[in-house]
Design goal:
Elements lengths: L1 H7 L3 H16 L4 H18 L4 H6 L1 H19 L3 H15 L1 H9 L4 H16 L5 H13 L3 H15 L22 H17 L6 H12 L5 H14 L5 H15 L7 H23 L5 H12 L4 H17 L3 H22 L1 H17 L8 H4 L8 H15 L4
Amino acid sequence: MRLAAAEHQYDKRLARDRIEQAYFDVSDIRTPEVQMECFAIMLGALSRLDNDDQLEKEDGFRAVVKADLGKLLDIVLKDTADHISTVSPVLKVLAADDCEVALELASRLNVMPRRDVAYESVASVLVAQPYTETRLASVKKALECITNVDHRARATVALLGALDPNPTKSDWVPHLEEFRHHLLRGHQLGHWDCWMVRASAAAKCEFPMELFVDRVKEAASRVASPLEESNLYFQAAETLAESAPDRAQSYYDQGARVAATTPFSTAATCKLFELCLSLVGRAMAPLARAGLLDDDKLSRHARLVDHLPGIIPRIRVLNEFAERMWCAERTDLANRVVQEQLRPLLEEARLVHASVARLAIAIAFPLCACRISSSRCPFSKICPMWKPTTRLSTQLCLGLGIYQVQSLT
């Protein structure tokens, strides 16, 4: 197809013959997945090569290739379990060629998370193309079809990364405002608004300063850690450094004040300390099994965890620590960590924002579910084979423990 593209510049007949030969060569491939990917490559090359639709009017190559692709997709989707990895190359080509067909293909995938990934891919490919009202409507539809609201928020932020290399992104900028309501977390809102200020200036569109200030306040109200908040203010300061230096200095000072409240200046150092606490928890498991883990050691561990900036890192560390206590057959210690440390953090996460609460509960749910005392649910009487470490007990606890975390959602 590259040779055909080169030949098309000086001899369209040679290019037509080469495309025809390539089509027959691909038609001889017996493996449906390989044949489908080859047809996808052909379709993408034809879309770039035949800008004036001259070849399409004379020979209808793209229509033939798309028809064959449709037949192969029916076969592959019927016989394949992991739809997204199989059809991803085809999906991106179709999104660039025919957005309606791409959206229809995304809706045919077999599992909801795979459909969500497919819709995200379609939206990202569409915004990388020149702006049209049809593409805008398709991007809107793709985002709305993503069922998981947290995934939809991440997909919306990902649009900015797809727009950055687009030489015509200025045409998209005035129409992006309607997607902002999909964002949930504070860092997502901050990144979106700072990008919009810079892109609006490049596109010569007005972005009111009062609106930006209000949105920074909104984003700051949804952050889950001092580190996120300081990064938000620093990002806002960088965005306004040229257009409003006084306001930028104010945001920088706010970020510096917030950053001074935590010993960790970057997410990398925070993650390193989190990994160190994971090793500490691993070393404490044998002590717990031997009955040597007293209140003093537990309180010292709790003080170390309190140094972590933010709710989510603390929940991750405490959840892992409680899991180690559970595996060491010290369910009393696991229950204590859940009741005294994890549950207050879950309540705190719920007060920040629903998206933060969902992430926190997704991390801590197995332990919260397993914190069922034998007096509430005497598994040993229901099932004589029950032990705290068996897979059956874990499944039963997960099934019944959902009632303990429903109040947190």
